[in-house]
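Q: How do we represent a protein-ligand complex in a form that can be generated token by token?
A: Start from the inputs.
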Amino acid sequence: MDISATAFLFLTFLSLCLYLLLFTSPKKPKSNQGFKHFPIVGTLPLFLLNRHRFLDWSTEVLSNCQTNTAVFRRPGKVHGVITANPLVVEHILKTQFENYPKGKRFISLLEDFLGRGIFNSDGEIWKVQRKTASYEFNTKSLRNFVMENVTVEIQTRLLPILGKASETERILDLQDVLERFAFDNVCKLAFNFDPCCLGGDGTSGADFMRAFEDAATLSSGRFMYALPGLYKVKKFLNMGSERTLKKSIARVHKFAEDIIRSRMEEKKTTHVKNNQDLLSRFMGTQENNSPEFLRDIIISFILAGRDTTSSALTWFFWILSSRPNITQKILKELETIRSRTGKKLGAEYSFEELRDMHYLQAALSETLRLYPPVPVDTKACRNEDVLPDGTLVGRDWFVTYHTYAMGRMERIWGENCGEFLPERWVENGVCRAESPFRFPVFHAGPRMCLGKDMAYIQMKSIAAAVIERFEVGMAEKEKSPKYLLSLTLRMENGCPVVLKKRDPSLAI
Ligand code: HEM
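Then emit the structure tokens for the protein with protoporphyrin IX containing FE bound:
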């Protein structure tokens, strides 16, 4: 055992002793009215026993609570509330928005990686980024982005890769392919850089993606420590996961900063205004932004758009692989759109045609209900408060809304909540909108996801192009995938698939 490992063990032991000595019962809010209805769960042994199946365990706990809200305690004075109650979600995300920021704890855990980017900031710093970025997500920009980037990536990279795998009968990790697709796409959106992760030759872009992946996974791992401050000890000693994290972050930061600095140089010399990507927008509107702040802004956007759509699509294809009747309904809808516009199989869909795919949208929404890419999301309570269901929340407590559990609540979705039923979304042939407080997959209120429309259009383009051309079967049919809780909900061992062309004569 080397010296740093011994020091680490010693410090772990020391912090454990300190914890046992110092930890007292949580500072209760003045009244305990909120506690009487709810079991106090989340004691250390329960948490440790269930950490590997946190989502299902906490879903069970919440469905057994009277108002689907539970009080949760962990050592290190981290206390809070977890809820699957739409009224509470509306209260924290909209009505009392100012009282429930991301908060110091959330921000400090992700600060090394995300700095003060939109995903990791509150107040004015958040507001100014939100305002500037929102222009990038209007209909015109969205249409251009889809037609120029998504379609090109599908035609020139995704389909050839899938076509080749089907010809050689090679098993392909669909999750990996979709993540590479999304990463290429969001880098183009963020700073007009194409890392060529899909179909590329494993050069610097792929290295950037790998470092990004590690940084995201290891940063989110900081939330799962049984002793919340332990990561600081490891960080101080520069050991274990913290050492890897530091290296990954340095690689991500350097990569982004190099691009930003060269763009700044370019701007000085050419004076050409190029507002096609987010970086240009932020360089154009706020001249004094430092390269570091621009880097933080860009990294947050890459994080937001990177794993979310790929996560949703991976679960979507897994679900469809055992539901041929739903695949047939999607194919029928695509056929109807083609015959209406006289388009042949193989030709790309327009933006308007993609918007018209209501059944496909319903099937995707149903996937998002059961497998939300962001399964839990946490805020901090600024001032003591009473939630609409009577639960008292103390100052500085965390408040987590549990999107994964909400998608599985009988009280919200009825007795058939466990069934995959796209029809529950369709009304008069149109995919209906659900209240974002009952279905907070894209968040709700002032911080609602900026990329929601973009995500649906991107997912529909990919799903339509793939489903029309291939039958996607799981390579390990008998196995149910396990989820891996990173910042998003991924499959633990990837998603190995076998592909078969629907029409062997169709050239891809
Ligand atoms: C299925 C796909 C997606 C899902 C489920 C999703 C979900 C979410 C959620 C839950 C949040 C709130 C996170 C928080 O504040 O804690 C969020 C925020 C955000 N999302 Fe998405 N997202 C998706 C795709 C995208 C895409 C493709 C983009 C484009 C880059 C994007 C951009 C953003 C941004 C910029 C925010 C921050 C908004 C703010 O804080 O004001 N998202 N998203």
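The two ends are 56 Å apart (CA to CA). The first strand starts at residue 40 and ends at 41.
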